[in-house]
Each structure stands twice: as C-alpha cells, then as structure tokens.
Amino acid sequence: MKRFRLFSFFLILFLLLRFSSACIKTGPAVEETTDTGETILSEEATTLSAEEEVTEEEEERVYSEQEIEYFFEIAFGAEYGSSDLVLHKWANDIRMKINGSPTDADLETLNLVIAELNNLLKSDIVSIVTGNHNVDVYFTDTSQFSSIEPNYIPGNMGFLWVWWDTNGDIVKANILIALDGVSQQERSHLIREEFTQSTGLMNDSWRYQESIFYQGWTSTEGYSQIDRAVIELLYDQRLRSGMTQDQVKDALGIE
C-alpha cells in the first residue's frame, strides 16, 4: 500500500512538471497559428505595424501656405507656348545629352545642378548620357537658336521647349544656352534656370527676387529655400501629371 501511494505521488509530480514545461514560451512570439491554419498577429506585431504606418505618414511633408501659393504660380502654365493649367512632370528618368561647346565652368555648373536636384528628389533621376537621351542641351551662339529650335523666341539668352504626352507627362525637352552676349556668371544662372524649368516648373514670377524663377534678369546661382520646396512639391508622390489646382489641394489635404 505504501509503495502504491509512493508510486502515485511520483506519477502526479511527473505529470505536473511535464504540463508546466509545455506551457513555457521562450522569446517574444510574433505570430500564432490556429488549428485551422489561420495566422494571428500577436499584440507586439500589431503595435509594430501601427508604428510603421505612423512613420510613413510623418514622411509626407507638410508645405506652408506661402510655398503652396508660389508652387501654383510656377507649376501651372508656362512662360511660352501652351498655357493649360495642369501639372506637367517627368514620369521617367531625365537623360541629358550635351551639344555644342560648353566651357569647363558650364559643365561644372550643370553637374552641380544635377547633384542638387537628385538630392532634393531623393533619387538619381537626372543624368548626363551620350545616347538614348530625352533632353538636348545646346551651348551655342544665339544666331543658331532658331535653326535648332523653331519655337525659339528672339531676345532670350536661354530658352526651353518641352513636349508632353496625353497624360501630361513630359517626354522630351530642348534647352538652349547662349555662349555670346552673357558673362560666365550669367550663363551659370541660365543653366540652372532653364534646366530646373525643364523638370515641369515652367513659369516665371515677380514675387521673389532671390528665386531662380524670378521674372527679371538676375544672376542668381543657387536655389532659395522656397525654390527647394517648390521642386520637392512637384515631385511629391501624391501629385501626378494632368492634375488641376483643385486636385492638388485634395491630394495634399488642404482647402
């Protein structure tokens, strides 16, 4: 009888220990699977997903009223040619071919502008190529401008003409930069202005004299703070070619 009790005691103790071990989990559980094969996220995994969603929302830049107003002035319409009030931007990479006789300083400026734009757009969207290009940049005398680009308006030392498809996406551009009648500093300004406008910001304004989009003659050689905001806004992922001002407001969540 004592042996039976002793045996029963050890049997119960063994079962209790085994059951306790089966309930122990090591490390945080990310997901669990039910008997039906359905995967259920644990509370920790659900919390992580929510944090990632908040991070994505925080990455969407909020633009000031001043920046929005200037964007509408610069991005809708064009200095010359068609004045349809919808957005135009590149959907593909911008591949530039250099033509003519640029100076070393010209090429240095062009490479600087490309680097700044790629940094603003957080992508290597702009590059210089020798073939399969969609932008021609000509460094030549103004006497040659009309033969290169029939739409050229005389009196301009720098000139831009772009083409877009039925969606409004820019597909081709010609940029003319004068070698005659301007200083190197003035030509550096023209390079920055015309190439920046070829991204889809084709209008000028009298509003900010320090802006690269200033209507008057200047020799500005850098982007102002509001210029950078306007460039970033055009290539904000929430905006697409063909949008009207009202559609842009809706996309940005502004009234």
List keywords for this structure.
single chain, 255 residues, alpha/beta, Collagenase (Catalytic Domain), 6-stranded mixed β-sheet, 8 helices, 16% strand
What does this structure look like?
- Helix 3 (65-75) crosses helix 7 (225-234) and helix 4 packs parallel to helix 6 (184-197).
- The protein has 8 helices and 8 strands.
- Strands 3, 4, 5, 6, 7 and 8 form a 6-stranded mixed sheet that branches. It has a two-stranded antiparallel ribbon with strand order 1-2.
- It has a domain at 88-252: Collagenase (Catalytic Domain).
- It has helices at residues 2-22, 43-59, 65-75, 104-121, 145-148, 184-197, 225-234, 245-252; strands spanning 31-33, 39-41, 89-90, 94-100, 126-128, 135-140, 158-164, 169-178.
- It is globular.
- The protein is of the alpha/beta class and 255 residues long.
How many helices? Answer: 8
Q: Into which percentage range does the β-strand content fall?
A: 15-25%
CATH hierarchy, class of the domain at 88-252 = Alpha Beta
The low-confidence parts are 12-58
The major beta sheet can be summarized as: 6 strands, mixed
Question: Which structural class should the secondary elements be placed in?
Answer: alpha/beta
Shape: globular
Which CATH-level-2 architecture of the domain at 88-252? 3-Layer(aba) Sandwich
CATH superfamily of the domain at 88-252: Collagenase (Catalytic Domain)
Can you write the helix and strand succession as a string? HEEHHEEHEEHEEHHH
According to CATH, the fold-level topology of the domain at 88-252 is: Collagenase (Catalytic Domain)
Q: Helix fraction?
A: 40-55%
Distance linking N and C termini: 89 Å
